[in-house]
Specification:
This protein has about 300 residues and is of the alpha/beta class. It has 3 domains: about 5-80 and about 260-280, Rossmann fold, CATH 3.40.50.10800; about 85-170 and about 290-300, Rossmann fold, CATH 3.40.50; about 175-250, 3-Layer(aba) Sandwich (Rossmann fold), CATH 3.40.50.10800. The protein has helices at about 5-15, 25-30, 40-45, 60-70, 90-100, 115-120, 130-135, 145-155, 175-185, 200-205, 210-220, 235-240, 265-275, 285-300; strands at about 15-20, 35, 50-55, 75, 105-110, 120-125, 140-145, 160-165, 190-195, 210, 225-230, 245-250. The protein has a 4-stranded parallel sheet with strand order 2-1-3-4, with helices on both faces. A 4-stranded parallel sheet has the order 6-5-7-8, with helices on both faces. β7 (about 140-145), α8 and β8 form a beta-alpha-beta unit. The structure holds 1,3-dihydroxyacetonephosphate and iron/sulfur cluster. Iron/sulfur cluster (SF4) binds near residues 84, 171 and 260. The site of 1,3-dihydroxyacetonephosphate has 11 residues, from α3.
Length: about 300
């Protein structure tokens, strides 16, 4: 039997579901039951009736799935796959900002540790951040951990006072405005679609800014034929599948997330077989971090 057949057999036997983010390798996306952006995957995690969730993504994704659905067993194919940005805010600074601004709402990008979520009023993802922040009654917003997504939200909502934190995605900030200019010179007819984790200078050149799903939908539904993609090139797999006629170019060669890249078919099979790398979240931590996550699901409706 092939490895994909072994995975399918074990998945059925154990009533498991496989969720995968668009940044994991194409062959891993192929064996997943659901592939999507962070928001879509967190919604799926609350709805599944499988007993086991295998989360092909990074730690905050598996952790959020477990927090949102504590009765399920959640497994990570690689326990070391972590998003560095998830740690780029501090509880001390949150406490300080809360003292300085009485009415402040702490808005936490889902790319964050469970501990940071416990200090937050609401979580957001790149697909719903503008909508959720807009509808909060608070004028002052402390946006953690991503300064680039925070700045993007601030630009859309000039009536809010958005206080930025100094965190960022090490991969997306490697894309520079110079690279975009050069890529545009090479492909003058291409539209540029970028993730809001890119820097402000890069986003200034974008024809479209959105989450991974947003970028995929934009490319698939646009009348243009050529696109420069300003995010991790894992999104190419889905675009090739649903819009094979589109021509895609990376702005920066080899735009990968090395943590997402750690997920392999062999590791998916191993966790299904041996039930290793199970996600456990301390009860108190889970209870406190569930509130901003469920508030996100409510407010994003
Ligand atoms: P999306 O929610 O757009 O899929 O983004 C997740 C992520 O980690 C981006 O770097
Ligand atoms: Fe984290 Fe960046 Fe990887 Fe997304 S692409 S998981 S933000 S390191």
């Amino acid at each position: 039997m092939s490895i994909t057949e072994d995975i399918a057999t074990l998945k059925k036997e154990k009533n498991a579901v496989i969720l995968a983010h668009y940044y994991v390798d194409e062959e891993v996306q192929h064996i997943a039951d659901y592939v999507g952006d962070s928001f879509y995957l967190s919604k799926i995690a609350t709805k599944t009736d499988a007993d086991i969730i295998v989360f092909c993504g990074v730690e905050f994704m598996g952790e959020s799935a477990k927090i949102l659905n504590p009765s399920k067993r959640v497994f990570m194919p690689d326990a070391s796959a972590d998003c560095p940005m998830a740690h780029m805010a501090s509880k001390e600074e949150i406490v300080r900002i809360k003292k300085e601004y009485e009415d402040v709402a702490v808005v936490c990008y889902i790319n964050s540790t469970a501990e940071l979520k416990t200090f937050s009023d609401v979580c957001v993802t790149s697909s719903n951040a503008v909508k959720i922040v807009k509808n909060l009654p608070n004028k002052n917003i402390y946006f953690i951990p991503d300064k680039n997504l925070g700045r993007y939200v601030a630009k859309q909502l000039p009536d809010k006072n958005i206080i930025l934190n100094d965190g960022c995605c090490p991969r997306h900030v490697e894309i520079t405005a110079d690279m975009v200019i050069k890529a545009k010179e090479k492909h003058p007819d291409a539209k540029f679609a970028a993730h809001p984790e890119c820097s402000e200078e890069v986003l200034d050149y974008a024809d479209y800014i959105g989450s991974t799903s947003g970028i995929i939908d934009y490319v698939a539904n646009s009348s243009s034929k050529e696109f420069l993609i300003g995010t991790v090139d894992g999104v190419f797999a889905e675009i090739k599948k649903i819009a094979p006629d589109k021509k895609l170019y990376t702005v920066k060669e080899g735009q990968i997330c090395e943590n997402m890249k750690k997920i392999t078919l062999e590791k998916v099979l191993k966790v299904l077989k041996d039930e290793t790398n199970e996600v456990f979240v301390d009860e108190e931590l889970a209870r406190k971090s569930m509130a901003p996550l469920t508030r996100m699901l409510e407010l994003a409706k």
